[in-house]
Design brief:
The chain is mainly beta and about 120 residues long. It is built from 2 helices and 7 strands; from the N terminus they run αββαβββββ. The protein binds FE2/S2 (inorganic) cluster.
Length: about 120
């Protein structure tokens, strides 16, 4: 299991230059992170390894690169889907949810045009 490197162990005198503790939820579970953490860092420090399921096979996925390249860390943050957890700073009161499957595609109702379909002349 991943564990957070404690700054007290690295800094003489046990001081911490990190900010305060921030509360957030992940799939309804109350969690805490540190100011300055990314959402991904806070989730990993809290023991969360599954951030989403793959769209086709439903395989569990979690952060890989932690620098915004692989898109394996996609989560829903405060109702906004497909957020890269490794690129979003943690904020007090965030509601984070895991994602399952592919993006939702809503078919236009019968007789209506899909977005982007203009008039044909
Ligand atoms: S972990 Fe790779 S983009 Fe977030």
């Amino acid at each position: 299991m991943l564990t957070r490197i404690r700054s007290e162990a690295r800094e003489p005198g046990g001081g911490s230059e990190a900010g305060g503790t921030l509360r957030f939820t992940f799939d309804g579970r109350e969690m805490t992170g540190r100011a300055g953490d990314s959402v991904a860092a806070a989730l990993l420090a809290g023991g969360v390894l599954r951030f989403r399921d793959s769209a086709v096979a439903g395989a569990p996925r979690g952060p890989f690169c932690l620098m915004g390249v692989c898109f394996e860390c996609l989560v829903e943050i405060d109702g906004q889907g497909n957020c890269q957890a490794c690129m979003v700073p943690l904020a007090e009161g965030m509601t984070v949810r895991s994602q399952s499957g592919g993006p939702q595609v809503v078919a236009p109702a019968a007789g209506r045009r899909a977005p982007g379909q203009g008039e044909t002349t």
